[in-house]
Each structure stands twice: as C-alpha cells, then as structure tokens.
C-alpha cells in the first residue's frame, strides 16, 4: 500500500587591396559570429521546448504565515487570488501545505486559510510554488491502493492502482502533464470510482518517477504514448475490456497520440482531457508572444525539432514533428467520444485548440468551458463542477454507448 542565450594619408594600391581584404574578412567573421549567436539562440529555444524541468522554481512571495490563526498571506496573482483548494510548496520543495478559502485581499496581497501543513515549517519561508495537484498519495482518499510496476520500453514505470469493488469494472488510466508527477491525477480518482471504474495512475518517461528515455527529452507526446500503451497492456492483462483515458495538459497530447498510434486503442471507449495540449503550435505561439520572441525564431525552432540531424541540436534522439501532433488537423482520425474541460483564462495552454477540435468533431467532442480556473486547476477551483461534468459524460455517453453496443 502507498500513502505513499580611415587613414589620414591615402594608402598605396596594394595597401588598399589588403585593407579591403581585411575589412571583408572582418565582416565575414562578424557575420559568422552573428549567425552563430542567432543559431545558438534558436537551438536553445528548441532545446527548452523538449527539456524536462530539473528544478521547480519557487516564485510566489510568502509574506506572512500566521500559524495561530491558520492563515498564509501571499502576493496576489491570477492564480493565488482564485477561490478553491491548492498546494503550496516551500523550502526548496521539502515543505508542503494545502490552502483553501480566500479570507482577505488587497491590491497586492491575498490571505488564505491553511487547510494543512503536511511537511516542513513555513514560518520563515519567503517564497513558494503554487500547485494544482492537491493530494500527495491516493491513500489520502481512504481507498485501497496498490503500488505496481508497468513494463515500458525504458523499464518498469511505477503506478498506483485503485480497484473498484467489481472485478469486472471498466478501467480509467490517468495521465499527468508536463513537469509534474502522477500525484496530479489523484484529483480524478473519486469521480471515476463513483462511476464504477478501477483506476490506474500512470507515470511516464522523464517525469522523475518513471525511467528516463535515452535522450532524457520530451517527445511532446510522440514518444510518451508508448508508456500509455504499456499501461493499456497492463490493464488488459488484468481483465480490462473497456478503458477511459484521461490526460492533463501535455498528458492530453500523450493521450491523443495513444489514440492514433497504439495497437490497443480499440480498448479505449472514451477520453477526458483537462487543459489539454491539442495542438502544440497554439501553445508555442502563445508562449512565444509572452516571451516576446520574433515569429521567425519560433518557426525556425520548430523546424529544428522536426529536421533530421538538426534535431540533435535540441538533444533529441529522434525528430519531433509538431504537425503530426496537431489533432485539430487530424480530427477525422478520432473515433471515440471525447470530453474536453478547459478554462478560457488558462494562461499556459490556450483553449483555442480545444474550441477548434469541438467545432471540427461535434459528433464526438463535448467541450465544457470554465472562465477563471487557470491551467490544470479546474478541480481545485470548483471540484463539484469538475466531478459533475465528468460523471454526467461517463453515464450519458460512454456507459450508454457501451450498453447499446453490448445489446
């Protein structure tokens, strides 16, 4: 179990030629240096896109911790001012507290209720890291949890399993996003259990839990799907004949690639995506604007990622073609019902691609839109909204269609 970046005198003709050659050489050298600088910058951008975060930076100023009254005062940001339940890490990630209701705000600060301090002493903490994943282990839900290893191409990947009471229950495989771990997905366990599902909470390559890939780089879904395919094999070996996949953020891109690449995709009867990357072009365009990068830099960086030989500048073992990961363009390849949950103020992954996918495939896609929940925090902002929409979709679409096809 687990709780677990001019001479003053006119020179002779020969001297003129020599000076000209020197000037030309100097100009060429400067151009070469300039090209190298620009090329190095573009390569750095491409590398940043596919490199896992090794250090999670604590950026949120902690202004006061009042342990007597159980409150914490933080700098006010679009994330910290939202109602709901969230995690706050501090002390270089060794400390963790859970915070709840907003009790007071000023123009620059927000004071929230402390629900629990799980590790460390936040009294002297000056900065923290705001997070959406709220639970640390499934055991906190008072459910039976198994620690299992899922065989993957890179080695055994740890997973948590929470079984339904019915051995013949359908399965849900939960797929976390970029820069986090399987703990992100615990928030969805209760609603799937309420719908009668057994649940596998998967880890995947380069997430700090599962084995790393040979290059240690993200494939942005183009390689990680193999680990979800492995999870499908695992649940199939344990009797699964019906599976719902759920993915958050980049995990959504991973799930969508599983649908179009996995030989076991026939087991999947439905997909839930939260704040998902449906089209990487939209994400990189948004992030490039936020960083004030010229459009040409983004375009060339994308070419570096997909071009053989050049892809090695990003540290990739194989090219990553973002065009193949554009599921709006490939919408006609989708064959199972999809529930999209996205907030229009996401702040990281624009909801535009989710809207476009829903418009492209209204026969399969149901889009549920929030307006102020931010990125991957729809449950945190309003758990009742989150649970109700997933439960309704499971019962009205997936389980209804499954019962109909069984007749």
General description of the model:
It is built from nine helices and 14 strands. The chain has 407 residues and is α/β, with parallel strands linked by helices. It is globular. The two termini are 39 Å apart. Mean pLDDT is 90; it is low at 1-38. A hairpin with a 2-residue loop joins strand 7 (146-152) and strand 8 (155-162). 41% of the residues are buried. It has helices at residues 13-50, 189-194, 225-237, 250-261, 280-290, 295-306, 352-360, 378-381, 383-406, and strands at 60-66, 71-75, 86-90, 95-105, 109-119, 127-131, 146-152, 155-162, 171-175, 198-202, 243-248, 268-274, 338-343, 365-370. It folds into three domains: 12-50 and 282-321, no CATH class; 60-131; 138-279 and 326-406, Alpha/Beta hydrolase fold, catalytic domain (Rossmann fold).
Give a quick rundown of the structure:
The chain has 407 residues and is of the alpha/beta class. The chain has helices spanning 13-50, 189-194, 225-237, 250-261, 280-290, 295-306, 352-360, 378-381, 383-406; strands spanning 60-66, 71-75, 86-90, 95-105, 109-119, 127-131, 146-152, 155-162, 171-175, 198-202, 243-248, 268-274, 338-343, 365-370.
What are its keywords?
407 residues, alpha/beta, Rossmann fold, 3 domains, 8-stranded mixed beta sheet, 6-stranded antiparallel barrel, globular, disordered N terminus
Blueprint (SSEs and pairs):
Layout: H1 13-50, E1 60-66, E2 71-75, E3 86-90, E4 95-105, E5 109-119, E6 127-131, E7 146-152, E8 155-162, E9 171-175, H2 189-194, E10 198-202, H3 225-237, E11 243-248, H4 250-261, E12 268-274, H5 280-290, H6 295-306, E13 338-343, H7 352-360, E14 365-370, H8 378-381, H9 383-406
Parallel strand pairs: 9-10, 9-11, 11-12, 12-13, 13-14
Antiparallel strand pairs: 1-2, 1-6, 2-5, 3-4, 3-6, 4-5, 7-8, 8-10
């Amino acid at each position: 179990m687990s709780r677990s970046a001019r001479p003053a005198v006119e020179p002779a003709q020969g001297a003129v030629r020599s000076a000209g050659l020197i000037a030309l050489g100097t100009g060429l050298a400067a151009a070469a240096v300039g090209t190298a600088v620009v090329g190095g910058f573009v390569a750095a951008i491409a590398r940043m896109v596919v490199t896992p975060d090794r250090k999670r930076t604590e950026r949120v100023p902690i202004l006061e911790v009042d342990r007597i009254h159980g409150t914490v005062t933080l700098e006010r940001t679009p994330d910290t001012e939202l109602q709901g339940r969230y995690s706050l890490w501090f002390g270089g990630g060794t400390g963790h507290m859970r915070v709840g209701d907003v009790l007071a705000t000023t123009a620059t600060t927000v004071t929230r209720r402390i629900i629990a301090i799980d590790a460390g002493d936040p009294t002297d903490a000056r900065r923290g890291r705001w997070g959406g994943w709220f639970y640390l282990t499934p055991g906190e839900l008072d459910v039976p949890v198994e620690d299992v290893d899922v065989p993957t191409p890179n080695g055994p990947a740890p997973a948590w399993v929470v079984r339904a009471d019915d051995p013949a229950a359908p399965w849900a495989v939960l797929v976390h996003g970029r820069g986090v771990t399987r703990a992100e997905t615990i928030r969805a366990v209760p609603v799937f259990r309420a719908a009668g599902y057994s649940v596998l909470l998967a880890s995947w390559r380069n997430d700090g839990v599962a084995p790393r890939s040979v290059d240690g780089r993200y494939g942005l879904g183009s390689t990680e799907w193999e680990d979800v395919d492995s999870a499908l094999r695992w649940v199939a070996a344990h009797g699964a004949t019906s599976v719902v996949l759920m993915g958050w953020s980049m995990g959504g891109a991973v799930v969508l690639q599983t649908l179009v690449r996995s030989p076991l995709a026939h087991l999947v009867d439905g997909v839930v995506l939260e704040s998902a990357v449906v089209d990487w072009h939209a994400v990189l365009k948004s992030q490039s604007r936020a960083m004030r990068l010229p459009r040409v830099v983004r375009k060339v960086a994308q070419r570096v990622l997909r071009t053989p030989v050049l892809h090695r500048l990003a540290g990739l073992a194989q090219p990553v073609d973002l065009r193949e990961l554009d599921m709006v363009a490939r919408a006609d390849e989708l064959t199972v019902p999809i529930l999209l949950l996205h907030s229009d103020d996401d702040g990281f992954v624009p909801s535009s691609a989710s809207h476009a996918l829903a418009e492209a495939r209204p026969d399969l896609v149901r889009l549920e839109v929030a307006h102020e929940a931010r990125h991957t925090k729809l449950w945190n902002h309003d758990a009742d909204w989150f649970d109700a929409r997933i439960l309704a979709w499971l019962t009205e679409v997936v389980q209804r269609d499954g019962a109909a096809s069984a007749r």
